[in-house]
Specification:
This protein is mostly helical and 133 residues long. Helix content is 83%, strand content 0%. It comes from Nitrosospira lacus.
């Protein structure tokens, strides 16, 4: 339930911000890039937009996490699992049980990304290039 609320609130928070950034890029960024044909001007025009997208994505994820956590604590109830009704938030969101239920692939990938700084940089560059294009 928390994951569903997180994704819905993430969409509701991030898409309007992305829409406003797109409007700004169409009205101000692209005409400025077309006016000057130098590659450095295009970089300095696109860089603030990339940083703004990254900051808004981080902020939206942070707000969605906080909002979904508070909504689940306030209104969420376990429907099928009656053994969790007494103290269910502690048992449902227990980090040990969540780690046990994760797939082996996800644990391996998370461990590899935490240990390998070069992989983080490469994934960051790939994501940045996808956002810029």
């Amino acid at each position: 339930m928390k994951q569903l609320l997180f994704h819905v609130s993430m969409l509701c928070l991030f898409l309007p911000i992305l829409w406003m950034i797109g409007i700004s890029l169409n009205e101000y960024g692209f005409p400025l890039m077309e006016k000057y044909h130098d590659k450095s001007i295009k970089f300095f025009v696109a860089l603030p937009y990339c940083l703004l997208i990254a900051a808004s994505l981080y902020g939206s994820a942070w707000m969605a996490e906080r909002l979904s956590g508070s909504l689940v604590r306030k209104f969420g109830k376990p429907g099928e699992n009656h053994q969790l009704e007494a103290g269910w938030p502690d048992k449902v969101f227990d980090p040990a049980s969540m780690e046990k239920n994760r797939s082996v692939f996800m644990r391996n990938v998370d461990g590899w990304l935490k240990d390998n700084v070069l992989a983080r940089v490469i994934f960051g560059l790939i994501i940045g290039l996808v956002i810029v294009m």
